[in-house]
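@here heads up, posting the sequence + SMILES for the zinc ion run so it's all in one place. Ping me if the SMILES looks off, I pulled it from an old spreadsheet.
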Amino acid sequence: MIKQVAVVGGTHGNEFTGIYLLKKWEAEPKVITRPSFNTETLFANPQAFSQNKRYVEHDLNRCFDQRHLEDDSLTSIEQVRAKEINALLGPKGQPRIDFIIDLHTTTSNMGPTLLITQKGAFYNQLAAYISMEMPEVIISCDEDHKANEDHHFLSSISKNSVMVEVGPVPQSVIRHDVFEASEVMTHHILDFIELYNQDAVPALPETTDAYRFIKSISLPVNDDGSRNGMIHKDLQDKDFTEIKPGQPLFLTFDGEVVTYEGEKSVYGSFINEAAYYDNNLAMSLLEKITLKTY
Ligand SMILES: [Zn+2]
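bot reply: prediction finished. Complex structure tokens:
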């Protein structure tokens, strides 16, 4: 039974959609509660927001593995904030909050995406339900083989959680379509939790198409580590479309086309995500999978 839900926004300070959705819901809290559970909101990184940055010192959404939370020597702004949030919503391992919905946006052309970081019948049913109610949503499973305590995401504080990831939208920008998709998907997630709690989940499709993270790949770099290339124009904006062996991935600044050299087709996500320029990541590679509902 899920009794306490937290909707979190602004984990990344320049992803404005979640921050303004929280303001909307805080003005009318009843729209995000349901009869069988309470919902609260949390603005995760207001300091980064006030500086119009993703984070001040460390990416807050990488600060929540158990080891980091217990390490008192970690004292950056985000490491301290992570401990505060863990005290507010957790503590991780024995959390007050049963389910976290963490709202994110991406500069990549991913459309509305539901990121799932755990396995199990609950998530397969949730994925099927969201796909049925909102067919444009992409289901993406991200390191769902890992135990919750090993995840470093904010959402891993609670035993169950998802991330809502919608794009494309530039950093520090609000787009109506992205705002609306984030809002509608969150309502469907809350509706599913209510149906699950009431043992009233309707008949769902037997299977759901989804993607699973394989690995991240980097942009071409020079020997000194400096960037030497960009996403190839044929791949730009083609998130969740097939990348075949031999297909262009990058164009280097000296004009060389770098192709995908894997043995079988993969799919890309977070293609040319602006936030990944910090460490020269180019995209995530995914495989296509089928989730069985029952
Ligand atoms: Zn984010």
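MO: The chain has a mean pLDDT of 97.
MO: One more: Residues 11-12, 15, 104 surround zinc ion (CB under 6 Å).
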